[in-house]
Predict the structure of RNA polymerase subunit sigma-24.
Amino acid sequence: MSRTEEFQELRPLLFSIAYRILGSVAEAEDAVQETWLRYEATATEPRSVKAYLSTTVTRIAIDVLRSARVRREEYVGEWLPEPLLDDPYEDPERAAELAESVSMAALLLLERLSPLERAAFVLREVFDFGFPEVAAAVGRSEAACRQLVSRARRHMAAGRPRFEADREEREELASRFFDALREGDVDGLRGLLAADVSMVGDGGGRAPQLARAVAGAQNVARLLGSVFPRMARIEVTFEPHQLNGQPGAIFYDRDGKVLHTLALDILDGRIQTIRTVINPDKLGHVGPVADAWAIHREVQAGRPS
């Protein structure tokens, strides 16, 4: 097998590791590309190609995350991970861990960890790497890595997200939510929301965004029930789509360009959290991006321009 073929075979794993460490599709793709360039330039053949590539992409991702932390501290408004449409890596034996670890709720918990804790946790707990492999990847001793993973487990367990276990029930509730949204049915929406539901948006200062999180079933239902009918009048549409392994939707303008994404966290038969990403810098991988400010002006005017 050629180096190109070996790399392409492992590419889904490398992207999935990088995305969980970085929470960014674009940065994860860049890390994978840099990993390929380093592999291509290596004169000697690694004893284990998987170990070499996993170590390389992890170290690149750690370095990127360290610099990204500074940018995120200065981020305008709520920071959310870039929405992931499909996780390219599959492992039937670890399907539950993979699905949970890619959710926005889990990625936001991972943000609380140090870069080394995050990388060690992802490799060990999500992808089941042995501690010798984890140690090689993060450049620490096995004993130090055990401590990193132990601390990360405690942090994650304290706020670990829980989701509706039955996928069919989750999808059925999401379908009812989107039906009510299309109809502007405030009562119908309210009946699907947890009493303490919260709705948060990420515009990054680059698009219209919520000034702060909206909390409570009545407030969220009223907001959704009033805004979407006005958006529909200027031909904004949406299509349900899994986002980060959870029910969600992609919203489009009249020209079919991506306006924003919306993801739902569902537990105990109710929607617990709604997260929207409208920052155009985070939507390029989803498709051509709409002018959110122009849409906002049209909605505010109540008529097409």
Notes: Residues 167-301 form a domain with the Nuclear Transport Factor 2; Chain: A, fold (CATH 3.10.450.50).
